[in-house]
Design a protein that fits this description.
The protein is mainly alpha-helical. About 45% of the residues lie in helices and about 5% in strands. The chain contains 22 helices and 10 strands. Strand 7 and strand 8 form a beta hairpin.
Length: about 575
């Protein structure tokens, strides 16, 4: 049933992209001199609910492009994983090793994709809001709520990646209309929050029958919590300074996070996956849809491995799997391959308690070679920590068989309940309610089978030799001890899920964290540096990506001024 629904969605994505081609893509604008038969003016398109729903599906359609590949690399490197190989590639390695320049292709493609998503959202929102009886039709309002959730998601990525950027909430029907000067990130944050407030007010809560591939009230509230915490933290400004809001504003944002958490408790549906942490991630690879812990997922499905929305979760990121030496007719009997383009920072394996279920999910120490004699894949342990992999998505957890040896149908979980719990815990700690913060953090640990952290065992669990001493976090009081615990806990729980780098940035400690791991990791030796992020990261520069070269050259309103130190 899931795949049937996804095939329907993919077909609608394809149709809508054709419909919007003449409206939103500059290449199409250059080549189309007449309206094709499939072209719809807005006055013709938004005439009934089915067409309006197609417009909303089109806003979703950008997600697989972004998260199929680029979003594995853009949050890398943090202190948990890095890209393998250090030669320049103008894509993932240069991003992960902090050697990127404004011509980086992944950065450009992400920039282009995010603006495409926002423009699709603007198109859908304006069109649906202009439909007859919009004000009295809850179905149409829910469609706008979905589009506003997605616009907020895309805009939030823009702000986290580039800071102050061009931004508008009206649809651009020609390339020239896209030219805008930079908007303050605070103005953009205001719009993001407005969009999410609308979304949470017009979307239903998920239930057991819901798909996490579709926005819900819970996903809107969870994203709002994430936005508020990021806004409360440090960010690099255009003048090169790194600042955060004054304390009164920070308290306002933290209290708003707590209000959202109270709504989660009142609703009561979302919770930890009932069968445990390992089964949660096995389920992601297996294609299981469960809306209790998974609040929002980016959906992937390719009918033949070459078309549709192709995914690479479990191949580009995951343990290595050698290509099977088989006949093409046998593809349904074996695992596909996995190129394993990323490596885990190996020290994390020893930071976990032995009984913590997350350890052997986060850190995969083996690979699969192809054995010609037995005509099968064989698991092989990698003795060197330099060859350990992020393990949350794996070929071995997927159904046997493949359509393309590199491509998977594995969804990416954009936000889940455990993150919501830890975000609420952080907000409680920053509003002088550290006892409640410990309670929530320990609920995450309990699910994983880890020891509850108390004042008595804090040093044994969160000081050397068990983990690194974090001299850049003051743990002289209970709130500081909680901040230290949160540093480790969000790593244990959420590694590789796209948040860690931006946690370190908003906490104002990314340079210090990268330097600490660079100096101590077995990923680096006296003769070879596999994980150079801590050496290359430059404070006051790498907190943001550069504006792409092409955009600076085309958009004269940017005045040819890039982000600091690019």
């Amino acid at each position: 049933l899931r795949r049937q629904r996804q095939m329907c969605i993919r077909d609608r994505y394809y149709i809508l992209c054709l419909l919007l081609c003449g409206l939103t893509n500059s290449a199409c604008l250059d080549t189309l001199t007449e309206d094709p038969n499939s072209y719809y003016e807005k006055k013709d398109f938004f005439t009934d609910k089915s067409k309006a729903q197609m417009a909303v599906v089109g806003v979703y359609s950008v997600l697989p492009t972004l998260y199929g590949d680029y979003e594995m690399a853009l949050p890398c490197s943090d202190d948990t994983y890095y890209a393998s190989g250090t030669n320049s590639d103008n894509t993932r390695r240069d991003i992960a090793h902090y050697t990127l320049n404004p011509a980086n292709q992944y950065v450009y493609n992400a920039w282009k994709g995010l603006y495409q998503g926002i423009n699709y959202a603007n198109y859908a929102i304006q069109g649906i809001e202009g439909m007859e009886n919009y004000e009295g039709d809850t179905d149409l309002q829910a469609m706008v709520a979905e589009a506003k959730f997605l616009r907020a998601l895309y805009a939030f990525s823009l702000v986290r990646y580039w800071g102050d950027v061009p931004f508008k909430t009206t649809y651009s029907d020609s390339y020239e209309h896209t030219y805008q000067p930079r908007s303050s990130r605070e103005t953009i944050y205001d719009q993001i929050i407005n969009d999410l407030n609308f979304a949470k007010g017009h979307l239903a809560w998920a239930d057991a029958s819901s798909s996490p591939e579709k926005a819900s009230q819970g996903s809107a509230r969870a994203l709002l919590m994430r936005v508020l915490l990021q806004r409360a933290g440090y960010s690099l400004q255009m003048d090169g300074t790194i600042t955060r809001p004054d304390e009164s504003k920070r308290q306002e944002y933290f209290n708003a996070v707590i209000q959202e958490w109270e709504e989660f408790k009142t609703n009561g549906y979302h919770n930890f996956y009932t069968t445990g942490y390992l089964e949660l991630f096995k389920g992601f690879s297996a294609g299981t849809l469960d809306s209790q812990e998974s609040l929002f997922e980016v959906a992937f499905y390719s009918p033949d491995g070459n078309t549709g929305t192709k995914g690479y979760w479990g191949t580009y990121i995951g343990p290595a799997v050698a290509a099977p030496g088989i006949a093409s007719t046998e593809a349904n009997q074996f695992m596909g391959r996995a190129n394993a383009l990323f490596r885990v920072v190996p020290e994390w394996k020893e930071f976990f308690e032995a009984g913590d279920a997350r350890r052997d999910v986060m850190v995969c120490t083996y690979k699969f070679n192809w054995d010609k004699t037995s005509y099968s894949h064989k698991k092989v342990e990698n003795k060197s920590g330099r060859d350990w992999y992020p393990g949350k998505w794996r070929r071995e957890w997927m159904p046997i068989g493949y359509k393309n040896p590199n491509v998977t149908d594995v969804n990416f979980c954009y936000i889940r309940y455990a993150d919501v719990v830890l975000m609420a815990a952080e907000a409680f700690n920053e509003t002088d309610n550290t006892p409640e913060a410990w309670k929530l953090l320990n609920s995450v640990r309990k699910r994983a089978g880890a020891t509850e952290i108390t004042s008595e065992n804090y040093a044994s669990l969160l000081k050397a030799p068990k983990v690194y001493n974090l001299n850049f976090i003051n743990d002289g009081d209970e709130a500081g001890r909680f901040r230290t615990a949160l540093y480790w806990e969000r790593g244990f729980e959420l590694a590789f899920e796209g948040q860690r780098k931006y946690d370190l940035i908003r906490w104002g400690i990314i340079q210090e964290a990268l330097a600490l791991f660079f100096e101590n990791s077995a990923a680096n030796t006296s003769t070879s540096t596999g994980y150079p992020a801590g050496k290359n990261f430059r404070k006051g520069k790498h907190e943001l990506f550069p504006i792409p070269t092409d955009e600076l050259q085309l958009n004269y309103l940017l005045e040819n001024k890039n982000n600091p130190n690019y």
